[in-house]
C-alpha cells in the first residue's frame, strides 16, 4: 500500500488513496482473511483516509462491516 501512502500523505489526494487502500481491503476479504492483522491495519488506514476526506457516509458503512472499528475511533 505504499502508493496509497504517497497519495494520502504526500499529495493529499484522498480519493486516489482511498481507491488503493480499498483494493487491499478487498483482497483480504477475497481471501477470507478479514481478521488478519494486516487486513485490520488496512481497514484502519482506510478509516483514517475517509475521516480526512470528510466521507462520513462511507466511514459509517465501514464501521458496520467492521464493528471493532467503532471501538478504536
Tags for this model:
5 helices; TPR-like_helical_dom_sf; mainly alpha; 73 residues; single chain; globular
Class derived from helix and strand content: mainly alpha
Radius of gyration: 11 Å
Separate helix tally: 5
Residues in helix, % = over 70%
Order of helices and strands: HHHHH
Number of structural units classed as domains: 1
Distance between the termini: 21 Å
User: What oligomeric state do the depicted chains represent?
Assistant: single chain
Shape: globular
The tally of beta strands, per DSSP, is 0
- Beta fraction of the residues? under 5%
**Which regions are unreliable across 5 or more consecutive residues at pLDDT < 50?**
none
User: What composes the largest sheet?
Assistant: none
Give average pLDDT, whole number. Answer: 84
Structural account:
The chain has 73 residues and is mostly helical. It has one domain. The protein contains five helices and no strands. Helix 3 packs antiparallel against helix 4. The model has no long low-confidence stretch (mean pLDDT 84).
Question: In short, what is this structure?
Answer:
With 73 residues, this protein is an all-alpha fold. It has 5 helices and no strands.
Amino acid at each position: 500500500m505504499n502508493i496509497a501512502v504517497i497519495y494520502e500523505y504526500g499529495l493529499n489526494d484522498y480519493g486516489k488513496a482511498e481507491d488503493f487502500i480499498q483494493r487491499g481491503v478487498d483482497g483480504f476479504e477475497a481471501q477470507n482473511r478479514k481478521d488478519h492483522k494486516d487486513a485490520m491495519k488496512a481497514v484502519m488506514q482506510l478509516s483514517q483516509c475517509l475521516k480526512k476526506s470528510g466521507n462520513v457516509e462511507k466511514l459509517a458503512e465501514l464501521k458496520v462491516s467492521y464493528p471493532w472499528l467503532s471501538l478504536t475511533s
